[in-house]
Structures are given as structure tokens and as C-alpha cells.
Amino acid sequence: DIITYTDVLRILEKVDPLQAADVASSYLERSMSNGEKMQVDRLGLQTLLLALSRSPKFDHAMMASIVWVWMENSDKVEHDVLDSSLCNLVLIAFSKTNDAKTAGEALSFLSKRISRYKEGDKTTIFPTVVGFSAALVSLGKANRIDDSLRLLEIMKFLSKDGVPNIKPDDGCYNSILSNLARSQAKNAAAQALTVVRRMKEDLGQISNSSLNSAINNCTRTPERRKGVEIAFQIFQLGRESQSFDTITFALMIRTCIKLTADDSARFKLVEPLFKLCAKNGLVGSMVMREIGPLKKRLIANDRLPKEWTINVGYRDR
Q1: What does DSSP assign to residue 242?
Q2: Is the pLDDT at 37 greater than 70, yes or no?
Q3: Residue pair 189/221 in contact by the 8 Å Cβ criterion
Q4: Are 40 and 77 in contact (CB under 8 A)?
Q5: Residue 144 has what DSSP assignment?
Q6: Cβ atoms < 10 Å from Cβ of 280
Q7: Quick one: which of 90, 115, 191, 281 could link to 310 by a disulfide (CB 3.0–4.6 Å)?
Q8: Cα distance between residue 245 and residue 252, in whole Å
Q9: Closest C-alpha to 207, from 172, 180, 233, 179
Q10: pLDDT above 90: residue 232
Q11: Which of 218, 210, 217 is nearest to 238 (CA)?
């Protein structure tokens, strides 16, 4: 029965998450096909979906989606079992996979819910901002930035219309930016700039984590000069929000060194960055690693004045 399965899953998840997901998937597949009423409460379903959401396999994510839709439409299950927190787990399951079909399936799962709501079904169960952020992870990995921005607009519409816990926050934008680099897209830098501009427009500022994620996308562009230019545009937006830290400067220095052909050009770009970093007391260990061969030209007598490091956290010194 479900109690036995949930007890087994809790043990398996700690030692073999993939096997736990296989067990959950097998149980759900049999339950949907045997024609009898599914004997599962919210806690049992949560345990099953949690097991599926901790697997990197696309098939497990699809099972989470299939069982959710089946339970929504079946007369063999108690409908009050379903809620927003469980809906989140379906999208989290998709976010853990790297299959090329993942972004499309996650978006399809949400689109069906959105269409029903717009057609007048106000009982439609939506994920919270946590689930939407997970969907944005999948879209970011696939470099589907236009779809990501449209989804953010839909979230704002739903929030204004009274759907709770769905208003976009910093985590939504960072879900796109931090995963965009994994798409290995040639236009990742330009896409990152688009996202941070939208973030500034929507939230009024750019968070430190999102700023750093955006700059990190610039090091992978094949058009080196353009990559540096975009990095400085993103950096300027971060300065306007006062959201930079020692990692921000380290990433900017890394971008300039990696995307510039010779030491002379590198020094011209890095020197003003390093001076600004020192002025703000943010010369940490990562900054020191990134300046590399330029160190002797930037630091007289190889000694760091105390005021250059005063605002660096203990772990970054």
C-alpha cells in the first residue's frame, strides 16, 4: 500500500535517488492503469513526487507531469489532494534534467494551466513562484529567453489578478541567468543583458547574484570585443543598483583578460576596474587570482593596503 511505499522511498532517497524515482514511477504507473481508485493522500503523493523530482532522468519528470494531469482529470482520485506545493514538484523535476525536450514540456505543462485560467476556470491550480522559477531554469538552459520573458509577464498578470504567491522575484531572473551559460549559446552575453535590463525595469534594481550570473555569461561569447562591451554595460547597471561585490570585480577582470588579445589591452581595461575595486575595499582572493600576470603592475611592492580589503567577507579573503 501507499504507506509501505512511502516508507521505502524515504529510505531509498538517501542511498539511491535514481532507484527511489524508479520505484515511485512504477507505483504510479500501476496505479493509473489498474482501473481502481488511487489510494493516496497528499503526504503520500508528495513523497512520490519528491522522489521523481530528485532524479535527473527526463522519463521521471514526464511521469510527474503525466500523473498530475491524470489526477486532475480522473474520477478515481480525491481532487483535494492536489495543491500548489505539489505542482511545484512537477516543474522542479523538469528543471533537474538536461534533455532537449525538457523546456518544451515544462512550458506546455504551464501553458495548459494558463489557458484554462484565461478561459474562466478560476479553480486552476498553479505552482507558486518556486515552481515558476524552476520552469525558468529549464528555459534558461535552452536559451529560450523570449519564452522566459513572456512567462514573467504572465506571472505578473496572474499576480495582479489575485493568484497568490506568484509575483516574480529576484530568484526568477537569476534562474534564467545562472542557467543561460549552460546553454552554451553564442549569444548568451546579449541575452543576459536583455534579462538584466528587464529585471531593472521590473524590480527597480539588479541583485548581486543576478549581476554576477549575467557577467559570467559574457566570458563565453565568440565575439570577444562585443563580449567585453556587454560585460561593461551589465556592470554599469549593477553599479547603478549598488549591487557589486568582490566576485563581481573578479568576474569582470576574468572577462577582460580572457576576451582581450594582448597584455597592453588587458591592462588598459583591468587597471581602472582594479582601482575601483580597491577604492571599495573589495580586493579579495578571487580578484587576486584573476589579475594573474598583471599583479606586479597593479600592486606596488606586492603589498595590499588594509583598506583595499576592508569590505571583503572572511571567506573571500
Answers
A1: T
A2: no
A3: yes
A4: yes
A5: -
A6: 18
A7: 281
A8: 11
A9: 172
A10: yes
A11: 210
Q: Is the pLDDT of residue 38 over 70?
A: no
What single letter denotes the amino acid at residue 106? A
User: One-letter amino acid identity for 186?
Assistant: K
User: Looking at residue 76, what is its pLDDT?
Assistant: 66
Grid coordinates given for 193: 543583458
CA separation for the pair 217, 231 (Å, rounded): 9
Please write the tens of the pLDDT for every residue from 66-124: 999 998 887 766 668 899 999 999 999 999 999 999 999 999 999 999 999 999 999 99
Q: Per 3-state DSSP, what percentage of the chain is helix, strand, and coil (rounded to 5)?
A: 75, 0, 25
Classified as helix, coil or strand, 281 is coil
Entry pTM:
0.91
What is the number of other CB atoms lying within 10 angstroms of the CB of residue 266?
20
174's torsion region: left (phi>0), alpha (psi -120 to 50) or beta? alpha
Distances (CA, A) of 258 to 96, 116, 220, 222, 262: 30, 49, 9, 11, 10
Cell numbers 578571487 label which residue? 286
57, 21 Cβ separation under 8 angstroms: yes
In whole angstroms, how far apart are CA 166 and each of 88, 148, 153? 11, 15, 11
Distances (CA, A) of 170 to 195, 196, 241, 292: 11, 10, 13, 33
